[in-house]
């Protein structure tokens, strides 16, 4: 007797995640992203998504550095914003080694060392006065190509499935493989938007500031760390006594490391078959909040700002750039005219004109929509 096997597994032997269709997951996946974006258009204007695109891209980039506890990274924030705008949904195969090299180079800069798939061991941890604490161990660098092929197999096998689930699995699967020497976290969050774009869940040019949502509240920030820990803590409990720090060695990609893990082969099953149920649930929560709250708030601010510009120009005609500077200064200084504003704009020497300008701008923000 012959048997036909229906291979409907979401991946391959190199990477095949589990996502349990719990009631909570089903509810998260029921969120209609396209409808929610249309609601924004209906509420704030048909082109609101395009008008906020540049700012939302920059906001996503800036928040991504906050997640990694890096601030005051002006040039790097601009570079990552450029990468998001240029490559999100545009690369033929975003998980290929060539594409990842391109994304990483855009994030880190042309002169960054050790670009491409890593050729050295890596762990996520922290240093204290007494010791190095290891929170997570990534797969052996020799296994990285096969795990990435497995992740690509998942991407191929699940095309047409729920975009939110695919985005969560691809993004978190990537960060656990940790294939790059640097930039893994930013690429991980880039892949959320990239997957949603490829699946047609968001239009070209629209970026969901998911990193801004993650940093927007303690609940989401702690939830992000807790979600990452779901896999890493189980791995570390099993292999807590299997790593050590030995002699410092320089690896092929230029990394100098003394980290030694003795059970890569035994641990392969964990990296191959992760349970990413909670990761998909968290991704769904973040995306819904991003659209319903973060993007709605930004759209509301933009509408008010444009109203203020219009009312300001009814008092005194001026270029948009000058109007924006005046509006920002007045708003930041509690509707008071600063000395710097008077110095840069002599029109504020006239008290009557000044009063009309302040009232025009303030009323735009205080009038209910």
UniProtKB/TrEMBL annotation:
Superkingdom: Bacteria
PROSITE patterns: FIDO
Record-annotated Fido domain positions: 95-237
Residues annotated as binding ATP: 182-189
Example GO molecular function: ATP binding
Matching Pfam families: Fic
Family annotation (PANTHER family): FIDO DOMAIN-CONTAINING PROTEIN, FIDO DOMAIN-CONTAINING PROTEIN DDB_G0283145
Designated name of the protein: Cell filamentation protein Fic
Record organism: Pantoea deleyi
């Amino acid at each position: 007797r012959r048997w036909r096997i229906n291979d409907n597994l979401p991946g391959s032997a190199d990477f095949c995640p589990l996502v349990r269709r719990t009631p909570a997951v089903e509810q998260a996946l029921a969120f209609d992203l396209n409808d929610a974006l249309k609601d924004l258009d209906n509420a704030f204007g048909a082109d609101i998504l395009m008008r906020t695109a540049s700012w939302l891209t920059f906001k996503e980039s800036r928040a991504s550095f906050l997640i990694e506890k890096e601030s005051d990274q002006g040039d790097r924030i601009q570079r990552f914003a450029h990468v998001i705008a240029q490559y999100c949904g545009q690369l033929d195969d975003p998980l290929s080694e060539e594409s990842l090299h391109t994304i990483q180079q855009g994030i880190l800069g042309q002169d960054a060392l050790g670009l491409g798939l890593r050729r050295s061991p890596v762990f996520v941890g922290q240093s204290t006065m007494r010791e190095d604490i290891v929170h997570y161990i990534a797969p052996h660098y020799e296994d990285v190509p096969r795990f990435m092929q497995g992740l690509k197999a998942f991407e191929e096998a699940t095309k047409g499935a729920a975009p939110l689930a695919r985005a969560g699995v691809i993004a978190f699967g990537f960060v656990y493989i940790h294939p790059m020497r640097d930039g893994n976290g930013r690429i991980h969050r880039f892949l959320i938007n990239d997957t949603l774009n490829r699946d047609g869940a968001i239009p070209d040019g629209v970026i969901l500031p998911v990193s801004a949502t993650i940093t927007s509240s303690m609940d989401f920030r702690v939830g992000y760390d807790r979600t990452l820990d779901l896999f890493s803590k189980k791995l570390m409990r099993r292999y807590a006594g299997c790593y050590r720090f030995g002699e410092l060695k320089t690896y092929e990609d230029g990394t100098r490391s003394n980290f030694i893990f003795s059970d890569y082969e035994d641990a392969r099953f964990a990296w191959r078959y992760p349970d990413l149920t909670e990761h998909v649930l968290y991704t769904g929560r973040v995306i819904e909040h991003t659209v319903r709250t973060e993007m709605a708030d930004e759209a509301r601010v933009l509408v008010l700002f444009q109203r203020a510009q219009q009312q300001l120009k009814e008092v005194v005609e001026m270029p948009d750039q000058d109007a924006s500077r005046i509006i920002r200064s007045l708003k930041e200084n509690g509707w008071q005219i600063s000395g710097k504003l008077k110095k840069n704009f002599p029109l504020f020497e006239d008290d009557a004109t000044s009063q009309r300008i302040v009232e025009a701008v303030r009323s735009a923000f205080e009038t209910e929509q």
